[in-house]
Design goal:
One of its GO terms (molecular function) is zinc ion binding. By secondary structure, the protein is α/β, with parallel strands linked by helices. The protein is built from two helices and six strands; from the N terminus they run E-E-H-E-H-E-E-E.
Length: 136
């Protein structure tokens, strides 16, 4: 699993185009202030170690949340961080698993609409920890 993590002042998105027929109907748009925005690429090899991959991803996000003092997280499926990609159903389930682990630790977590291309704006802070990449 690959994580590209941003400490943001603002993140806004609007669904642009549905890419999966089975995707649920998405809301018009949403905005989040003072949040960690996590671009997640779930890889094929994560399917072989589901619990470990989800646990390690959540641990990395929790680490950054503690370092930055953030309590809100937005997870965004972004299959462009690696050439390896898991199955669609597994990727969606992995995001939900990460969300559940983070919520259990007291964070407020949202997931962008799965199965859509999004139009988005992101205002990332300038500090070094505002832009973190991890391979878990």
């Amino acid at each position: 699993m690959k994580l590209l993590m941003f400490d943001t002042n603002e993140f806004w998105y609007k669904p642009f185009q549905k890419t999966l027929e089975t995707a649920q109907t998405a809301v018009d748009e949403a905005a989040f202030a003072d949040s960690l925005v996590i671009f997640v690429n779930v890889e094929e090899e994560d399917e072989l170690q589901k619990d470990k991959s989800i646990r390690k991803a959540a641990e990395n996000i929790l680490w950054l949340a503690k370092k930055t003092g953030r309590t809100k997280v937005v997870l965004h499926s972004f299959a462009h961080l690696s050439e390896s990609k898991s199955g669609i159903g597994f990727a969606e389930a992995a995001l939900q698993g990460i969300r559940d682990r983070l919520a259990a630790k007291g964070l407020t977590v949202a997931i962008t609409p799965f199965g859509y291309f999004l139009e988005f704006k992101i205002h990332v802070k300038g500090e070094s920890l505002a832009k973190v990449w991890k391979s878990v």
